[in-house]
Hints:
Elements: H1 5-15, E1 20-22, H2 40-51, E2 66-69, E3 76-80, E4 103-105, E5 128-130, E6 137-138, E7 152-154, E8 159-162, E9 175-177, E10 182-186, E11 201-203, E12 208-212, E13 225-227, E14 232-235, E15 249-251, E16 256-260, E17 275-277, E18 282-286, E19 299-301, E20 306-309, E21 323-325, E22 330-333, E23 346-348, E24 353-356, E25 372-374, E26 379-383, E27 396-398, E28 403-406, E29 420-422, E30 427-428, E31 441-443, E32 450-451, E33 465-467, E34 472-473, E35 489-491, E36 513-515, E37 522-524, E38 540-542, E39 547-551, E40 576-582, E41 585-597, E42 600-606, E43 613-615, E44 620-624, E45 637-639, E46 644-647, E47 661-663, E48 668-671, E49 685-687, E50 692-696, H3 701-704, E51 716-718, H4 739-743, E52 767-779
Parallel strand pairs: 3-4, 4-5, 5-7, 6-8, 7-9, 8-10, 9-11, 10-12, 11-13, 12-14, 13-15, 14-16, 15-17, 16-18, 17-19, 18-20, 19-21, 20-22, 21-23, 22-24, 23-25, 24-26, 25-27, 26-28, 27-29, 28-30, 29-31, 31-33, 32-34, 33-35, 35-36, 36-38, 37-39, 38-43, 39-44, 43-45, 44-46, 45-47, 46-48, 47-49, ...
Antiparallel strand pairs: 1-2, 2-3, 40-41, 41-42, 41-52
Membrane topology: Single-pass type I membrane protein
Subcellular location: Membrane
Main location: membrane
Amino acid sequence: MSKCSMHLNFLLVLLFCCVSPASFDLLLENLVVGLVACSPGQIQALTQLKNEFDTRGCNHSDNSNGVWCDNSTGGITKLQLSDCLSGTLKPNSSLFSLHDLRYLNLSENNFSSSSLPSEFRNLKKLEVLSLSSNGFLGQVPSSFSNLNKLSVLSLSDNDLTGSFPLVRNLTKLVLLDLSDNHFSGPLNPKSALFELHQLRDLFLSNNNFSSSLSSEFGKLSNLEVLYLPSNGFSGQVPPTISNLTKLKVLRLSDNHFSGTLAPNSGLFELHELRFLMLDYNNFSSSLPSEFGNLNNLEFLYLTFNLFSGQIPPTISNLTSLVELFLDGNELTGSFPLVWNLTKLSMLDLSDNHFSGTLNPNSGLFELHDLRYLNLGYNNFSSKLPSEFGNLSILEVLSLESNSFTGDIPLSICTISSLFGLVLSYNNFTGQIPRCLSKIAFVNLRENNLEGRLPDNFYVDASVQTLDVGRNQLVGKLPKSLINCSSLRVLVVDHNRIKDTFPFWLKALSNLKVFILRSNDFYGSISPPDQGPLGFPELRILEISDNSFTGSLPPNYFLNWKASSPTPNEDGGLYMAYNKTAYAPIFYTYTDVLDLQYKGISMGQEKILTFYAAIDFSGNKLEGQIPESIGHLKALIALNLSNNTFTGHIPLSLANVTELESLDLSSNHLSGTIPNGLASLSFLEYINVSHNQLKGEIPQGTQFSGQAESSFEGNAGLCGLPLQETCFGSNAPPTQQPNDEDEEEEVQVLSWKAVAFGYGAGMLLGLTIAQVIASFKPDVFL
């Protein structure tokens, strides 16, 4: 439901209680059937309107579409056609002959090639006009100001431009929504906006408005919703905001507001406020104790500002508070007293400088409605209290990057609703609790945990991401992991796990990231039948710094069936998963990598959905590098360094067109460097040092920009960037791929990049060291 739909529905009751609705076919094929109350002329106009557009895409499920006519005059007073019409809304459309219209909703259609016709001025009786989500272009015609009966005007989610539109005569407006467009410029103090004294709801989010907020906002004394996020507003909140005594929602997020929130700023006189969102700005100073005056406040978002000092004790006066987000500031002190905040459902104090213990006397463990708790990136210490088990409906617990010690309390296992547990980067000791199977996202990275991974993962266990890297775990990988059919990310690097390669994990059809780096794994990584490795959906395989041995069969990289990675539901670039909590909240969980890019460590980078990498470095692998490597056509990073591979560099590597990083150093490779590698336009880093290569280094941007050290230790190599010249030498020519190599087609792992326009290096990601989890909730009003 849109943010203005409640207002629209309420107005319908008032405006149309004396008119009769007529049936309306969503395909408009039987438009005239059943329109008993409509005059013949109006029916004819509707028929003409149908013929002006392509209606084959009409949404059959939208029962709100329809036509209403006045019983006495036969004139059409209400018309709603949402998600139905495709084409250009022309100035001579029959729509503009429907002069009795009082309600018109044409939202979510496809008028993408249209500007807003000035002929809307003909519909002088309009009281509600919704044209949102249509793709309208250009500026709002000045003739819109002639619609002086309008009480609701929604032009949101289009491609409209220009300055704030002319609204001088629209004095009856109750709701104005211009959000999600490209309007720009200041809100001039002389603007007619500040003459709209009946205005209750104002939505201007996601535009390019700039300048400071005018003190004239104080004239809009009937405002209940002021929604201005994601613009370029700056300066301080004007003191005249105290005149908006009916204000219930104030959202100024993601702008450039700055300065202090002084006790006399006027903000703390808005006693009806329920939503206050000032996140992602540059507000500074300490938090005023006057926040305690806003005793009707339910949602307080101050995320990512520059607030400092301690949380004032008066915060406990906010007994109606449901969500409190203070993360990303410079706040200090101990955990605040929250005894009175019994309705609190979400609490985020992460990324501050809080310290001390989580004292049960703070009231934290009496918050029985708490679902989300994030205290990460602070300086909390001591053991975790067993009272965490009191938070019986907790869904996400994130305590990463603190100094917690001791065992992970078993009482956490009693929280049956828990699906996100992030305890990474602390000093926890002892063994891993045996309740991991029921938690979807588990990150215990970089602690001092010991013992074995629990071997009690039941069939269809909930776990999707399991990161236990950088601990002191021993033993083998538990065979019960085979039951985790939803497992997508498995990270056990930098432990002391001693086992053979777990070919049996190929049965996990959703596994995308598999990292075994720096353990005591041993033996062959070739399947017993000497066939392809064949993990069905794997995108990142990292087994470096173990004791794997043997050679790779020629077809090792065939039949890796993962095609182009499926994009996220939200179309985002990064590997992330959404989980609905309770309306209107859902959590976004993002996997993050520690990377080594051109030998430089880069911590906690998000994983692009099309990222694909292989790292077999630091083992005892031998034999030739299989030519089938060339079938991984969208591989981005390949590291086979520090093994004992022999033979030539595969000519087929020239087919790996998305490759950005190639490290074959410290092997026993011979022959020449294939000239085809010079055609890899994204290749930014190459290292073939300390082999037995000879001949001229291929010339091209990809090679000439490399460091000399990338080719050293090959006595027979010559040409730039080395000092040795090939002039007059007997160096053999570089190898060229023949037609048979170029045309070979077999079933392959087609890790195809989603976006081909990225420059070299944009995709990041070379040697993967870890995957960690990140939770953030998203809120929709």
